[in-house]
Write a structure and sequence with these properties.
This protein has no helices and 21 strands. It is mainly β.
């Protein structure tokens, strides 16, 4: 684990590190970066195809770019850094949250070798806020860089980046899709499904015993069935879908725990409306079924009038359990809608 108290920390990039403060906490396990800070930490390491970067991140106050990465010089390299949050786009976006949660620790596990390899000299930490009075704040803790040991006979599926819903092929699923609308947000990282929507997204993936589906979900208005799953054809399969919310029972029920704080009775027949909050899900799909899948399925069922149920999904990706973070992220991550 990186001990920041023993590391040499300096400015990263020319003219980028302005009015920033670094504070080392937890006996070196945590680094807090405030203001508009671009920092490089001396960290010599040979990145291989098996290198893993594991850490926890907390957004203290939103800035323009919050990121972590590696470099071998002082010139910022967007192709060797992963943006985690921020109002501007910079760096690799596979782990960026479009709707960040201030004050909440989140765990990350990045297969660095899937993006680049070679010798690096620095770990880079970015908390950009290029305004006259920068207030952005980032906290990084429990940072580990190590080599993942893979069994010689193990079949490892490549990690997929966060799904871009705006470029994916999405069509009706079964005979249930009626009067539904799709809209994309956060440059395709999120999708909103409203009305009476049953959708399938073309995605060929071999679900194994280690497959995990990770995503964020939010509902602004409750319908009858809010669910997500996989399928290999166009026939609705309740045994391959996980219900998250809704007034009716359909699909697997192990993850039906979404709650709307402060919800009040709504005008629609489904009965609940409110300012729903994002909830993170990590579903070990391989514990329920395995096999070759052709589709990711998204369900927002509300076949009464008015058909006004609304579901958002976000930050979706698919990995194997061995490559999934220990807490928040897993095999498959779904982009936030």
């Amino acid at each position: 684990m990186v001990d920041f108290s023993d590391m040499a920390i300096a400015a990263y990039g020319r003219g980028q590190d302005l009015s920033s403060t670094v504070e080392i906490q937890d006996l070196g396990a945590t680094l807090a970066l405030t203001g508009s800070g671009w920092k490089r930490v001396e960290f010599a390491y040979d990145i291989t195809k098996n290198t893993i970067l594991e850490f926890e991140f907390k957004l203290g106050s939103l800035g323009e770019i919050h990121a972590i990465g590696f470099d071998n010089d002082r010139v910022p390299s967007a192709n060797q850094a992963w943006q985690l949050s921020g109002t501007e786009r910079w760096g690799l976006s596979d782990f960026s949250s479009p709707s960040p949660r201030v004050g909440e620790w989140r765990s990350y596990r990045i297969s660095v070798g899937d993006y680049f390899t070679g010798s690096v000299g620095y770990l880079t930490l970015i908390n950009d806020h290029g305004v006259s009075n920068p207030t952005a704040a980032s906290l990084f803790r429990n940072v580990r860089v190590y080599e993942q040991e893979l069994a010689a006979t193990a079949k490892v599926q490549p990690q997929r980046p966060i799904i871009n819903f705006s470029t994916a092929t999405i069509t009706s699923y079964g005979q249930q899709d009626k009067s539904s609308q799709l809209s994309y947000q956060d440059q395709g990282d999120s999708v909103l499904l409203s009305g009476n929507g049953w959708k399938k997204l073309a995605l060929q993936y071999d679900v194994t015993k280690d497959t995990v589906l990770v995503f964020d979900f939010k509902s602004e208005r409750q319908g009858e069935i809010h669910a997500i799953g996989f399928d290999d054809d166009d026939r609705n399969s309740s045994n391959r879908a996980f219900q998250l919310y809704g007034t009716q029972d359909w699909g697997r029920q192990e993850f039906r725990n979404y709650a709307v704080p402060g919800a009040v009775p709504g005008a629609g027949a489904a009965g609940v409306t409110g300012a729903g909050q994002w909830q993170r899900y990590e579903i070990p799909v391989g514990q329920f079924f395995t096999g070759a899948m052709n589709y990711l399925t998204l369900i927002n069922d509300h076949d009464v009038k008015p058909r006004d149920a609304r579901s958002f999904s976000a930050m979706c990706r698919c990995l194997s359990a061995a490559a999934a973070p220990k807490k928040c992220r897993s095999t498959w991550a779904i982009s936030r809608a």
